[in-house]
Amino acid sequence: MATKMLRNIPSVSEMLDNPRIRPLVDRLSHNVVVDRIRNVLDDLREDVASSSGNGGLPDIGDLAERIARRILEGEQPSLRPVINATGILLHTGLGRAPLAEEAIEEMVAVARGYASVELDLASGKRSQRVVAVEGLLQQVTGAEAAVVCNNNAGATMLTLAALAAQREVIVSRGQLIEIGGSYRLPDVMSACGAHLREVGTTNKTHPHDYEQAIGEETAVLMRVHPSNFVVVGFSSAVSLPELVRIGREHNLPVIDDIGSGAMFPLDEFGAVGEPVARESIEAGADLVLFSGDKLLGGPQCGIIVGRRHLIDRIAKHPMMRAMRVDKTTLAGLAATLRLHRDPQRAQASIPLLQLLTTPVENLQNRAERLAPQLEACDAVESAVAMPEEAFLGGGSVPTQKLETWCVAITPARQSADRLAAWLRKGTPAVVGRVQHDQLLLDLRSVPPRDDQALVNAVGGLSSSD
Fold first, then answer.
1. Coil, strand or helix: which one is 107?
2. Are 356 and 271 in contact (CB under 8 A)?
3. Whole-prediction pTM value?
4. Which domain holds residue 127?
5. Sign of the CA dihedral 456, 458, 463, 465?
């Protein structure tokens, strides 16, 4: 019986001629379609052989539909747009900060063709790619010079490799951070050839701790903003001006790694205590390091600003070429920095700042408007607007809680986890958070233009999905 069924399985050529599959050859390619057909037919042969022919063969139409579905699923990119309804504004898994339209337009413009990445169009001579953004970084931070690399971890490695290889870097023990992806500051120092010198204790570090640790092998003093944790209670840390004083007295540069890269104070919007790049420069830091894709709201990159002679040493280090950014990153960063020259314009134009500064009353109004629309969907038993807490970041700045409003969905005849999974696989993909057997769609991280898409995504599911 099984042998007869195996002989009746259609050939690859037969399936290629099926009207359900033939258009896919033109849409994709002959090789891709043939490969998927063979995979499905091989699976079918294994099923027939293992079941001894008891199950029967699918008809040709069902088989063609199965193959077409396999082909289309295989062509679905793993990297695709997502509606972030988690309430985490700087979600590492979802690409951190979305870009301003101005940044996107400039990135598209230089991506379409050639661009003056390392060419001075006025003189026709070779130029440096950092020229595209250095003047803007000088304007928004007040620094003498700047350089840009792939991310802030790269900025740390590059800076220490250039300034502290085979020498000591003095850091407070309470600032020896570990963040997502197994990034540990002591390991980074070791990898770039610098020697860590810890001072103080986990909760208390005093000026004399630094002063007593300084010796012939000391290369730099470093302050690291612990953006992914907070020490409270019986604690103290050395202020940046005090650390700068110590550095000046011993002729040592002071590096301030501020992490998220705020360009102006954001305390009134819930991001309390985030260091501001310009304030660090004004306090006397010789170098300030920060990310481009967090509070700055630009593309992923690491930014180093500070004194010209130190920036020149970093720019000439061999590691710089390995960590440099491409033309699209430079274009997006330049457009974002132009917006930051006017804080009000930045708040109005940069998506991350728009979401962060949205009044909670607006979120409440949207949640109350969306709840009955979502409750009317087949897959939903009830949907209720409710106040909640959102977060500025997950791995970075997870302690920064923000007021928000959510729509809490109780699914009909299925679990909240299953509903969340179906929404993640939909088009558009929607990522929420499951809490107390409900799916929460947090509007703090959803721009208003996506409200109807949320309703459509949930409305496209049936209660049996």
1. helix
2. yes
3. 0.87
4. 99-349
5. positive
